[in-house]
């Protein structure tokens, strides 16, 4: 089961986990990314490259399926306007074994952060707004998967 | 006449002031970097967007590629900053 969704609507992690739990495996892992508040952040806008995003995510999911025995993968990524504490991204994986579920979930979020065409713009209380800079740590997190 | 659709995202789009445009295809051997050079004279926004090539990324027909990549027969080029999703 592969489920990929990109859109402006919010999502309920519990509802996304349920179908993964029914695939007959013994392990379901998930990651939920939340818009981090603080620093005067009032909102965040997420842009993406519609013609490319879903295809790119599907490719990353295929990479994960080639590495781990996965029964199911769910990736949901929101775009548009978000507020602090809003859920922004969900990755869920189901497998027979916990290591495969946990590792593939980490792999998917690391690759999503640094290899899918999304861009974040933050707006602050004082009226400032700025595009988020890519972080070298995110590239490093992705690249650690290339060694094995 | 072959054409090439160019799309801009994030601060590249904001600096240039448009989502994209269609240009005459400069030929299969021309690289993305060559094309960028040819866009710079179009206005100060272009010069600003393309000032620091190390902060620029590209996708050719929806595949990430380095700026040195020849355009080939591609129909769509996207120019944008490093991605920040997740």
Automatic annotation (TrEMBL), chain A:
Enzyme class: transferase
The EC number(s) this enzyme carries: 2.8.1.12
UniProt keywords, alphabetically: Molybdenum cofactor biosynthesis, Transferase
Keyword Transferase: yes
Reaction(s) catalysed (UniProt annotation): 2 [molybdopterin-synthase sulfur-carrier protein]-C-terminal-Gly-aminoethanethioate + cyclic pyranopterin phosphate + H2O = molybdopterin + 2 [molybdopterin-synthase sulfur-carrier protein]-C-terminal Gly-Gly + 2 H(+)
Gene3D superfamilies per UniProt: Molybdopterin biosynthesis MoaE subunit
BP term (GO), one: Mo-molybdopterin cofactor biosynthetic process
Record-level Gene Ontology MF annotations: molybdopterin synthase activity
Pathways involved: Cofactor biosynthesis; molybdopterin biosynthesis
Domain of life where this protein originates: Bacteria
Annotated InterPro entries: MoaE_sf (IPR036563), Mopterin_biosynth_MoaE (IPR003448)
Assembly information from the UniProt record: Heterotetramer of 2 MoaD subunits and 2 MoaE subunits. Also stable as homodimer. The enzyme changes between these two forms during catalysis.
Family named by the database record: Belongs to the MoaE family.
Record's function text: Converts molybdopterin precursor Z into molybdopterin. This requires the incorporation of two sulfur atoms into precursor Z to generate a dithiolene group. The sulfur is provided by MoaD.
Protein name per Swiss-Prot or TrEMBL: Molybdopterin synthase catalytic subunit
Species: Sphingobium jiangsuense
UniProtKB/TrEMBL annotation, chain B:
Entries under PANTHER family matching the protein: MOLYBDOPTERIN SYNTHASE SULFUR CARRIER SUBUNIT
Designated name of the protein: Molybdopterin synthase sulfur carrier subunit
Protein keywords: Nucleotide-binding
Gene3D superfamilies linked: 3.10.20.30
GO-annotated biological processes: Mo-molybdopterin cofactor biosynthetic process
CC annotations in GO: molybdopterin adenylyltransferase complex
Source lineage: Bacteria, Pseudomonadati, Pseudomonadota, Alphaproteobacteria, Sphingomonadales
Family, similarity comment: Belongs to the MoaD family.
MF terms in GO: nucleotide binding
InterPro entries: Beta-grasp_dom_sf, MOCS2A, Mopterin_synth/thiamin_S_b, ThiS/MoaD-like
Pfam family, one: ThiS
């Amino acid at each position: 089961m592969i489920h990929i969704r990109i859109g402006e609507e919010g999502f309920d992690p519990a509802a996304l986990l349920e179908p993964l739990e029914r695939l007959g495996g013994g392990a379901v892992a998930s990651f939920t990314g939340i818009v981090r508040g603080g620093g005067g952040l009032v909102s965040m806008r997420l842009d993406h490259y519609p013609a490319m995003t879903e295809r790119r995510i599907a490719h990353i999911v295929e990479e994960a399926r080639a590495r781990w025995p996965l029964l199911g993968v769910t990736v949901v990524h929101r775009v548009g306007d978000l507020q602090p504490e809003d859920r922004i991204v969900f990755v869920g994986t189901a497998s027979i074994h916990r290591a495969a579920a946990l590792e593939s979930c980490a792999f998917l979020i690391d690759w999503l952060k640094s290899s899918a065409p999304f861009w974040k713009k933050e707006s602050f209380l004082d009226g400032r707004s700025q595009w988020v800079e890519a972080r070298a740590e995110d590239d490093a997190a992705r690249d650690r998967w290339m060694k094995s | 006449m072959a054409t090439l659709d160019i799309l801009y995202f994030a601060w590249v789009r904001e600096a240039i002031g448009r989502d994209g445009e269609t240009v005459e295809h400069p030929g299969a051997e021309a690289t993305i970097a060559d094309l960028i050079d040819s866009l710079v004279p179009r206005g100060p926004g272009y010069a600003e967007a393309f000032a620091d090539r190390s902060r620029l990324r590209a996708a050719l027909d929806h595949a990430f590629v380095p700026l040195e990549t020849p355009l080939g027969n591609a129909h769509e080029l996207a120019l944008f900053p490093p991605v920040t999703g997740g």
